[in-house]
Amino acid sequence: MMVTKRSPEKQISVPDVNPAKRLKVEKDENSKTVIRNQTVQETIKSKKRNESILINPELEVKIEPDETRRSQLNSSSHLIRKFENEHFTLNSPDIFSHTHCGQVPHVTTDLCSTSVNGEVSIVPLHSVLSCVKVLEKLNKSLADFVRTSNKIVLNPFNSSEPYDLTSFNDQLGMSVWGKGGRKKITSKEYLCIVKICQPEMFVSLSDVVPSSVNKKRANKSCYRTLQWVNEAITYLSDNSTVTSRLLAPIPGSGDRQLMMKSANLLASRQVFGYVIERATLPVEGWEDLVKDIVSILPDSRPVFMLGVLNEMEMVKAYNCGCHFVDSSFLLHFSNKGQAMVLNSANPTQLPDPSKQPDSSSEEATNDSSSEEATKDFGPSLAENVPSEVTGENEDKKKKKRETGKVLIFKPEHYMPSKSITLDLVSPVYTRQFCKIAENCECFTCQRHTRGYVNHLLITRELLAPTLLMLHNTYHVRNLVNTVKDKVERGDLAKYKETLDEVFKLKDSHS
């Protein structure tokens, strides 16, 4: 009996294709399997063509600012505005409280008041990720869950981040950093979170990159941000039950033409307001750029600047035409033992840290606790940042703390910053039994002294950042009230110049 050998069937090997390509399997007339590579790059390119004209400097002429509108910004009278809505009203100029899940950091609910917490709270997205499922089950808004009467602004970008983590963003979504590490949030997921949290306003997903990136990365940032804004506008138009108002971020990473083109495009979009992230602007000389951007935007919509680094930048933002800023920099000051002492009514009058208002008290002396006093307080966002990133070694920081002079404080941030503060961690303040700042009527200054706060910082007590946060927040609120008074009188530009001279003077002595 003859045994016929059956020839083995030929196996078709699937080639290793690019993930951007989709495999399409078809059968021809002879029932032979044919594998064809159908690329999706063409569809991606077609989407990019819609925005490439506006973000590619080679394909469009330069966009210039509106000179008529820009001349109106110099008067600062436009800042006194009331932005009304069927659900809420905003009065400008004002400062929004930077919060963690709706609560001011280090401050308990019973200590919060309108003078400390304000009327609007900015909530970073990373702080609410852990409670989204709970809110969905309870069917409660974020404001009801945290028991606050403040208006909520949900911001996907954490303005208090110590260093740049935006390199993890891609076309699919934005990386959000929380306690559990990095989590990728797509546009659809973020819009579902907005629907659950029910904030009064929310900032669209944005690919925030610093001004130090190259041109190609800046173009990608513009395209991604504009695409996410369009998706948010479409989602709100299709879901009438969502009453949250959209704030459109302006991308461009400090490049003037890219930011101008993005602003020109977003000016025609149906959004409530616009957001300029301080992290995207250059370190120096960003005032003219912001004025050019604001001159293109509609006058009837508010402009927010989030992530200002000190009180001087607050006044600069108001002078450039921004209606609202945030208080994220206060968290850095309170964590590092810094107390603001700038007298907003008379900025040229600075306290002498070596002398006390009470002449009967003893002079400050260095004791055995000086080594402990050089330590920073508690958990800080920038503790693990290497010295190569911060540009400041331990010897320099220790020398600054032992001087006890009025500092030009440089927080460990993604950008250098300067602020007039007292470094209460220094042993110079150990025996100073007076108010932190003269004529200050905050909760801390009415009940405690520099020496007591210095003791709390040295012993690393949890009460120390609480008292400093109350003092610094009250201090900033007074500064905003002074700005409002200067705007009504038309003296904001002169007030900004006076502050600028004071900061330059202290910078020369630092």
Secondary-structure topology with pairs:
Layout: E1 21-27, E2 33-39, H1 41-55, H2 67-73, E3 81-84, E4 89-92, E5 94-98, H3 114-117, E6 120-124, H4 132-138, H5 142-146, E7 151-155, E8 173-178, E9 181-186, H6 187-197, E10 201-203, H7 215-238, E11 245-249, H8 256-266, E12 273-277, H9 287-296, E13 303-306, H10 311-319, E14 324-326, H11 329-335, E15 338-340, H12 370-373, H13 387-390, H14 394-403, E16 407-408, E17 420-423, H15 443-447, H16 450-458, H17 463-489, H18 492-509
Parallel strand pairs: 5-6, 5-14, 6-7, 7-10, 10-11, 11-12, 12-13, 13-14
Antiparallel strand pairs: 1-2, 3-4, 8-9, 15-17, 16-17
Helix pairs in contact: 1-7, 2-9, 7-8, 8-9, 10-18, 11-17, 16-17
Question: What does this protein look like?
Answer:
The structure is a single chain. By secondary structure, this protein is α/β, with parallel strands linked by helices. The protein is built from 18 helices and 17 strands. It has helices at residues 41-55, 67-73, 114-117, 132-138, 142-146, 187-197, 215-238, 256-266, 287-296, 311-319, 329-335, 370-373, 387-390, 394-403, 443-447, 450-458, 463-489, 492-509; strands at 21-27, 33-39, 81-84, 89-92, 94-98, 120-124, 151-155, 173-178, 181-186, 201-203, 245-249, 273-277, 303-306, 324-326, 338-340, 407-408, 420-423. Helix 9 (287-296) links the parallel strand 12 and strand 13 (303-306). The protein starts with 20 loop residues before the first strand and ends with a helix.
